[in-house]
Design brief:
This protein is an alpha+beta fold. It has 4 domains: 52 residues; 104 residues, Immunoglobulins (Immunoglobulin-like, Sandwich); 48 residues, no CATH class; 152 residues, Rossmann fold (3-Layer(aba) Sandwich), CATH 3.40.50. The chain contains 9 helices and 24 strands. Helices cover 27% and strands 30% of the residues.
Length: 461
Amino acid sequence: MTAPPGLQPTPGGAAGPADGPRPGPGGAQPSPATARTKPTGVTEASATSTATATRTVQVADEPTWRRLPREAGRRVLAVNRLLGVSPAGWTLLVVAALAFWAGGRLGWAELRIASVACLVVLLLAVLFTLGRQSYAVSLELQSRRVVVGERAFGELRVENTSDRRLWPARIELPVGRRLASFGLPSLGGRASHDEVFAVPTVRRSVIRVGPARTVRGDPFRLMGREILWTDAIDLYVHPRTVPLPGRQGGFIRDLEGQPTGEVTNSDINFHALREYVPGDDRRYVHWRSTARTGTLMVRQFEETRRSHVAVALDVAGEDYLSDDEFELAVSVAGSISLQSLRDENTLSLLTSTQRLKAISPRRTLDELCGVSMVNRGTLPGLVRTCVRTVPGASVAVVVTGSQPAPADLRRACTLFDLDVRVLAVRIQLGAETSTQTLSNVTVLTLGSLDALPPAVRRASL
């Protein structure tokens, strides 16, 4: 049998491809330029019967002149982590090397002597740094929650857990953005040393105290090795708050809930009488009206709901005249939130940027410690966020600064539903207390925190 053109018979009698390139689609022959060539340094092997090629490429090693500086840098960093060489120590080492080179170049023995002296000082610093520190360090705060202006005390106790005397060292304690440093004397075996410190609490904040770390080094502070001994402790500096009139004083006027206007067959707030229909609860039959009319009459009630207080704190920096004005706004929001929780009302606390977890008085004040002014957000946007995230609110309190005009504040509060009681508090330091009520919105201008309780009583929420 004759094989078709382009195919050569194989030894087994089957037709196989002829030598040379295989025709492309349509029978076109590939050009010599597209033919596969085998590059130098590359081995090619057929992995499967589908002619899939596996290529192994040999990669040359990195040049020595490029690898050595990087390796030297890693070694220097390792030594620096071990000994804790300070910038002053590195400077002294460079000065010693330059003085030794200049002394040999210029023939000045004085420079050589100065270089040796620098090296001796560095060697002594190394001796101060080496060795183990057998310490047991404890950090305690007298109270982890204080009010602005109260003094917060802490105690740092360091004990030598070994039987040998330890050299003097330094112990550092980060307190917020500051760093407190205490000198540890030489401690004998099983001896201890106590340090009592005070944390300034002039501003509402969350102050991180610790972790305590010892710095073992030389007196010249050329080297120092740091070891962490304790965990960090958060100190919450709460805003100042005042007690407000509760249910008895009219802060939230209802005792069992607020009427919604919807009629129901069982509740507390009586609405009207109607004729009995099958299925009504006989407990609500009004027997006097039944005897007078001769028709079985039952009572109807207005459905009441538990008061849900929404407190919205404006944190836009452009709405406040000063930092003190913003701090007063935070204190007002905290005072109203605490009274709502004491009255066992459902509370939702939010700002222009986030919703805070107000599940208890302590957690509410902790959340307010981290609130700060931002350069974004508007008062209408805050109200819209409150309406969207707290749709079931019965009382809404909006706290803002002195920059929004009372008319703009009232206009923004009209976004709430008419059945929501709205109190808009406008903070203006030194201003006289004033209230203006229009429909369901009461605008309260407040000049100090002490004026808040009588102002809330006057607003009759």
